[in-house]
TrEMBL record:
It comes from Terfezia boudieri ATCC MYA-4762. Residues 182-197 have a biased composition (Polar residues). Component of the coat protein complex II (COPII) which promotes the formation of transport vesicles from the endoplasmic reticulum (ER). The coat has two main functions, the physical deformation of the endoplasmic reticulum membrane into vesicles and the selection of cargo molecules. Its main location: membrane. Residues 99-123 have a biased composition (Gly residues). The lineage of its organism: Eukaryota, Fungi, Dikarya, Ascomycota, Pezizomycotina. Residues 669-753 form the Sec23/Sec24 beta-sandwich domain. This is Sec23/Sec24 family protein.
Amino acid sequence: MDTAIYHALAQQDDPNRQNRQPQQQQQQALPSGHAPQGIYQQRVIPPQQPGYGYPPPGPNPYGAPMPSTTPLQFQNPYAPPTQLYGAPQAPSQQQEGSSGIGGLTAQMGGMGITDGAMGGVGASPGTVSRTAKKKQRHAFHEIDQAPSAPVASNPPFSPAASQFPGQQGQFGSQHGQFGAQPNTFTPGYQQQLTGSQFPVPANPQFVPGIPPTSQAQYNASSSGRDSSSGQVDPNAIPSIPASRDLAQAHYNTNPYATLAQHGPPPTITDYAVIDQGNVSPKFARLTMYTIPTSQEILNQTALPLAWILQPLAKQRSDEAPVPVLDFGEAGPPRCRRCRTYINPFMTFIQGGGKFVCNMCSFPNEVPPEYFSPVDMSGRRLDREQRPELIRGTVEFVVPKEYWSRPLEKGETIEDRALKWVFLIDVSMEACNRGGLTAFVEGIKKALYSDLSEGEEPVKGGIQKLPKGTKIAIVTFDKEIHFYNLNPSLDAAHMMVMPDLEDPFVPLSTGLFIDPYESRSVIESLLDSLPKMFSAIKNPEPALLPTLHAVLGSMEKSGGRIICSLSSLPTWGPGRLFLREDTKLLGTEKEKALFTTEHQSWRKLANKMVDAGVGLDLFLTPHAYIDAATLGYVSSTTGGDVFFYPNFVISRDTPRLVDDMVHVLHRETGYNALMKVRCSNGLQVANYSGNFLQRTVNGDLEFGVIDADKSMSVSFSYDGKLEKKVDAHFQAALLYTTREGERRVRCLNIVAAVSDNGKDVLRLVDQDAVVMLMAKEAATKIVDRPLKEIRGNLTEKAVEILSQYRKNFSAPSPPGQLILPEALKEFALFMLALLKTRGLRGGSVSSDMRTHSMRLLKAMPMADLSTYLYPLIIPIHNLAPTQGFPDQAAEGVLSIPPTLRASYSRIEEGGVYLVDNSQICILWLHAHVSPNLLEDLFGPGITTLQQLDPYMSEIPVVETHLNAQVRNLVQWLSEKRGGRALKLQLARQGMDGAEYEFAGMLVEDRGNDERAYVDWLVHVHKFVQLEVGCF
Ligand SMILES: [Zn+2]
C-alpha cells in the first residue's frame, strides 16, 4: 500500500516527525484483520484533522438550519475518496516488531497527535475552532475539565469532585463535603412540560412514540427552557452517559483498590481491581459501604441493605487470579459456632492460639497444623504468605465431606469433569427455519475451532475444554435419538427410543465420549443431521420425555444440557399448549402466563438440581413457545436462555454460534450450593436470582452456575450493630469446577458501621441499589400484579428521594428537587427499569416478558446497567484518534463521549452504534452521507438500500473509518458479559430493528412511560407531597 500518502498527511503538523519516522515506518500496519497482539485494529489513515463531520447529502429536508452541524459544513475529507486511497488493497499481515498497542502510541505520536489532541482538540490551528464548536455541542459530556470548575451549560450537575477522587481516603477525610454540592434543579409544573416537550413526530418514517425528528426541531421545541425560567433544561439533569464516561476516564489509568474509602466504579466501567482483603466489586457489591447501626437509621434513608453477588465473574487478565488453597483432609479452618470460613477479618488472640470469628465473635481453637505465632499487634507472622488472611476472594479445595458423593474405586477427579449434552431439536420447524443448521454450526465451532486455524478470535477465546470433559449428542422430534460416538466407529450409531412414557438411554457405552478422541465421528454426525432430518420432518417435538431420558444418564455425574428448540413442544407427556391469551394481559390473571403451574416441568427442574444438572436453552421460535414454562427449568437449575425470536438464519446464525462458543468456554461449575453469612445483629432477609431455594432462608441450590450469573441477598436487622465495630459479610459458594474439583469460593467484605445516615448515604452504590430493585421486582412478577410492582418501584424511588430531602439535604427552596450525590442517576435508572420488557406496562408478549424478567434476575452486573440504559456511540463524527488505542492509557481504546438515550440527540445524517448488552444496533439516518457509507461498507455502497439487511458484521474495508468502527464494535463486545455481540442493522424508515432502537431511547416518552424530564417532574411532585413542601 502507498504509505507515502499517510505519512504526508501525518507529517504536516508534527514537529517531532523526524524523530519518529523510523519507528513509524516499522509500525505501519493496515487496519485489516485482527492484530495478532491486540484485539483492536491499528490506525493508519488520518484523513484530515479532527472530526469527519460527514454531511448529510442534499438540502436539509427539514428546512430549519441545523446549528449543531453548521460548523462542519462541509469539509468532507472523503470527497472524492478514491483520490485519497487509491484502489482497495488486500489485507496484509502486520509487520514483525510492530507490537500492538505499545507501538501504536509511537505511531500516533508520529501523526501529529499531541496530548491535547486526545481531548479532541486538533493540532492544527485551523481546525481547533471546528472542534471547539463541536465540543460545545457536547458540553454535557465533557470530562476533561477540572471537576471543581463549573460547567457553564450544566451548573447544577457538574461532575462533583468527590465522586472519583484521585487518591484514596478523600471521602473519609472530607466528611463535610457531602451536600456541599447538592444536585438540584427546579422542575416546572408537569403541565408545562407534558405535551410541549415532545412534539408529535413529523417524520412518518420513524417509529411512533418517539419525539422530535431532527435536531432542528428539537432545538426549536426546547429553546429557552432552563432552570432560571422555572422549567427544565434537559442538559442540566443528571446524565448516565456523562457519569459513565467520567468514571471510565478515571479508571483508565487507576485501579480500584478494594479497601478504598470510596465506593466502586459503575458496573459498566472497564477497570482493574486490587484485592486488599475486601472482595472485588466484580464478584460482589454492597448497596452501601457504611452500614447503619439499626433498622431505624436504615429506614431514614429508605435504601435497601443488600449484597449483589456474581461469584464466578470474569476477571481482567491483568488482575491477580483468585487463589486456590488446599488444606488437605482437614479442610479450611471455620468457625465452630457459625461455620464462617477463615478470612482476613478474623482476629487471632492468645498468642495465635485462638481465632475470633468476625461474624459471631466466638473464640475458636486454632488447629495445631494451622498455628502461627502473632506479632505485637496480633497479626500472624505468616500472614503475608496466607492468601486466606489477606485476600477478599479465595477458593478452598475441600475434602470428601463436602462432596455430594465419594469417588468410586478407580474414579479420579478428571472423571468428574463437567459433562455436556447437546440436545438437538430436529423437528420440522428446526429443519425448515434453520435453527438446526445454526445449532450444529455452533457446536462444531465451540468444540473444534481454534485460533491456529486462522479463525477470528471469538470473545472469551476458544481453547480446548478441560481434560476429562465428556460430551453426548441426543436429537429429538417425536422420538428420541441417542448416538454411540465411540472413536473406534467409522460413523455414529443411532439408537431410537420411541417410548416416551418411560424413556431410557439404550446405550451402555459410547454415549458420553471425549470430544477430541471422537472428533471425526462427531463432526460427520453433526454435518449429516440437517440433511438426514429434512427428509423426515416430524412437526411436533417432545421435549419433557427427552429431558427425563437424558437426565437419567446424568443422575450420578451431574452436567450441563444445551438444548435447541424451534417450536412449542406439543408432543408426548408434558406437552405444552398455546397459553398466550392477550385478554389476560393487564389483568390479575396475567401473572399465570409468566410462570408455570405444570407440575411435571416443575418436578423435572427440582430433579435436575438434585442431580447437579442445569439446562441452557437456545430458542429460535417464530411463534409462541411458552418461554415461561421452558425457562422455568433453565432459571431454576441455574442455566441460561438464549432467545432469538423470529429467527432468521443469515442474521442470527453468527450470533447463535458465538453464544454457543461463549457458553462452552466461560467459567462454569455444577452441583452448587450457596450460603451467605453476616455479622450478628443482621440477618438474611431475602434472596433473588435464578436458583432453587427449597425453604425460606434455606441455602441456594444450583444445578449449574457460571461466570454470567448474579443474584442478590438483602438483609434485615435482628438487633443493633455497634457503632465502632465493623459489619462483616461472607458468601460461600460450594461447587464442582468444570475440571471436576470440589471447591468453596469465599467472598468476604467488611464495612464500617455508623449511626449517621449521612455517612451511609455518602457511600451508597447506586448500581447495586438499582440491581437489587430490578431483581426483586422481576422476582415478584410471578405472584404480584404487574401494575402493583410498577407502582411499588415508583413509590420506592419517591421514598428514597423524599427521605433524603427530609433527613439529610441542606435547606433549599421547596421547588428544587435535590438528589443525593451518590444517587444522581437513580431516578433515571428507575425509569429505565420501568421501561424494560420485563416490567413495562402495555402489551408485551408473555414470551418476551418472562425472558426479560429472568434476565433481570440473573444477568451479569455489567450487562444490567447497559440493559437498562444503552451505550450509544456516534460514529459519523469520530475524531481521527477515536476508535484507536489511547495514547494516554495503555491498552485502552479512545472512545468518543457516549450519547444520551434520546432521539433529540440524534443528528441529521448520523450513524450510531447502540448496545444494550442483548442486541447491538447500527442505526443509520435516512440521509446519511454516501461517502460515509462507502467508507464503512466498501466501494460502490452509497445508499442504504444497497446494504444487506441481515448483515451482522461490518465488512473489512481499507479505510480509517471502517477500522475505527470495527474497533468500537470489538470494544462493545469486550464489555459484554453474557451474550455475543452481532450487529443488527436499523436503517431509518426501513428496518424492523428501528423499533428496538426506539425502545432503547429511554429518556424519551415511550414503552408506556414518561420521558425523563417528565418523570423527574412526576417524582418531584410526589417528593414534595411527602416532604410537605406544598
Ligand atoms: Zn462464627
